[in-house]
């Protein structure tokens, strides 16, 4: 058990929380993981306070659960797996260190949310390569560490983007800086000679930024991160393309991304479009009924030089591709316009969050895949849903091209009423069955969470062995989010 008096000495009495109501919020989330109430919550403000908390936890063998985003939480990674845990709430560490347009870079602390950073980046003339409609309370660093898919795949050079460099404390209490930030010199000394901590590779031949991504807080706590940004276009023109033939939309997506014509580019099915834009049950049905089964959205950008000419040329070229595929780009699809979409996706999601707006909860199943396998995987998911008594027509589908169009993030959203035990049990069982079936059909679960982690990791004992060895090196006392596997 951690010494509460020493915790109070580190962060101040007001920043150690014992109230049961506050702790109850961290004992569960919208996933199906078991509920475990933490012993207390601590709220550091400075990086050195984080280091002291980790060292104290090592002395007392106390589990630490780092949390940087506000509620609601969905994936079970912030719910303790063992009793006596301390929640390390990083929301007070909310400084935007800098936003640098010439170098397309920003440095932030973990408590900075999308709601905080988007307007500051826009003011400087740059923008984030961000995920689809993040919550206002979602930590930018949390999103990057979780490798959430970004909307502009043409600017994603590898799966770790937009992470550049990071500063952290490992589970043994040691300070570390990844990539260019590692040295020589301190961060401030690097600034003096023009360093901006943008290159993620290193130190040395290692790329340890990959080690901290997807770790679910199980190897250390990140106290700052620099992230790559993109220039803000001076002119943008959005389009929608609808079809019942997903394969044609995937072909079009491939051309758009590979030829670097677009910025944002993704595919949603009618259920997810309706879930995003509906404000009530009547709106949901009206929007859904007006749409084709799948809708591809893309944005054509124009920058400082000849923006109109650039967009016009791309419109002409894309129309030729559409004609060959038998598709048509439109400014509206049903009762949803392309302008509605661009306004929505370049900001955090309005409350209530779109995944809980329709029914109150959502179980998400997501994986990486390739073009040739998506149709079969979606068909299998629909069959599983129907057999489980979950209408396939209610299944949300989100397909995001990733890493310059080399692969796809495929996501199924299972919306349900959390107050109905029948619905919750149906979705829980459906999720477990779907994971096993989709793995057999080539789905790569690169970011496993919750109750299905074991089934995924146990298929690769060699990797699991390496993961455990690394855990023992960097977190020898297993104080960092024990029970979670990175």
Q: How would you briefly describe this protein structure?
A:
The chain is built from 17 helices and 19 strands. It has 486 residues and is α+β, with helices and mostly antiparallel strands.
Q: Reading side by side through the largest sheet, how are the strands ordered?
A: 14-11-13-12-18-19-17
Shape: globular
Broad structural category: alpha+beta
Average pLDDT figure:
95
Helix % is: 25-40%
Number of strands: 19
Q: In CATH terms, what is the architecture of the largest domain?
A: 2-Layer Sandwich
Indicate the CATH topology of the largest domain: Uridine Diphospho-n-acetylenolpyruvylglucosamine Reductase, domain 3
- Terminal Cα separation, in Å? 25 Å
| Largest pleated sheet | 7 strands, antiparallel
Please give the radius of gyration in angstroms.
Answer: 23 Å
Number of helices: 17
Tell me the fraction of residues in β-strands, as a range: 15-25%
Number of domains: 3
Q: What's the CATH class of the largest domain, please?
A: Alpha Beta
Report low-confidence residues grouped into runs of 5 or more: none
Keywords, separated by commas or semicolons:
single chain; 486 residues; alpha+beta; Uridine Diphospho-n-acetylenolpyruvylglucosamine Reductase, domain 3; Alpha-Beta Plaits; Vanillyl-alcohol Oxidase, Chain A, domain 3; 3 domains; seven-stranded antiparallel sheet; six-stranded antiparallel sheet; 17 helices; globular
């Amino acid at each position: 058990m951690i010494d509460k008096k020493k915790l109070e000495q580190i962060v101040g009495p007001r920043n150690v929380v014992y109230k049961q109501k506050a702790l109850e919020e961290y004992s569960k989330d919208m996933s199906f993981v078991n509920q475990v109430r933490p012993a207390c919550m601590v709220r550091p403000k400075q990086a050195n306070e984080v280091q002291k908390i980790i060292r104290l936890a090592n002395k007392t063998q106390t589990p630490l659960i780092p949390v940087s985003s506000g509620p609601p939480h969905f994936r079970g990674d912030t719910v303790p797996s063992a009793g006596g845990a301390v929640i390390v709430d990083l929301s007070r560490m909310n400084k935007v260190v800098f936003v640098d347009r010439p170098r397309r870079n920003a440095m932030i602390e973990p408590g900075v949310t999308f709601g905080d950073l988007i307007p500051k980046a826009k003011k400087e003339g740059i923008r984030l390569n961000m995920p689809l409609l993040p919550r206002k309370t979602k930590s930018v660093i949390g999103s990057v560490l979780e490798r959430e898919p970004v909307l502009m795949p043409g600017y994603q050079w590898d799966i770790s983007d937009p992470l550049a460099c990071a500063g952290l404390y490992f589970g043994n209490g040691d300070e570390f800086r990844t990539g260019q930030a590692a040295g020589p010199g301190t961060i401030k000394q690097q600034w003096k000679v023009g360093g901006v901590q943008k290159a993620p590779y290193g130190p040395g031949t290692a790329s340890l930024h990959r080690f901290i991504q997807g770790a679910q807080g199980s190897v250390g706590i990140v106290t700052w991160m620099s992230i790559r940004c993109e220039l803000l276009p001076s002119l943008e023109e959005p389009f929608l393309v609808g079809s019942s033939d997903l394969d044609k939309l995937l072909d079009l997506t491939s051309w758009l991304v590979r030829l670097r014509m677009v910025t944002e580019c993704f595919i949603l099915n009618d259920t997810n479009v309706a879930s995003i834009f509906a404000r009530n049950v009547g709106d949901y049905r009206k929007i859904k009924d007006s749409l084709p089964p799948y809708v591809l959205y893309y944005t054509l950008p124009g920058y400082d030089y000849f923006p109109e000419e650039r967009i016009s040329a791309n419109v002409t070229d894309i129309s030729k591709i559409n004609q060959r595929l038998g598709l048509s780009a439109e400014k509206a699809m049903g009762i949803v316009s392309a302008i509605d979409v661009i306004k929505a996706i370049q900001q955090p999601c309005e409350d209530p969050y779109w995944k809980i707006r329709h029914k109150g909860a959502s179980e998400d199943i997501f994986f990486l895949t390739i073009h040739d396998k998506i149709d079969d995987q979606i068909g299998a998911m629909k069959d599983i849903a129907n057999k489980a008594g979950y209408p396939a027509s209610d299944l949300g589908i989100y397909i995001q091209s990733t890493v310059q169009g080399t692969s796809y993030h495929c996501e199924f959203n299972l919306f349900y009423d959390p107050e109905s035990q029948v619905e919750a049990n149906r979705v829980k069982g459906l999720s477990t069955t779907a994971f096993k079936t989709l793995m057999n059909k080539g789905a790569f679960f690169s970011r496993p969470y919750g109750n299905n982690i074991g089934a995924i990791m146990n298929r690769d004992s060699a990797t699991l062995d390496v993961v455990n060895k690394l855990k023992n090196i960097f977190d020898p006392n297993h104080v960092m989010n024990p029970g979670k596997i990175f």
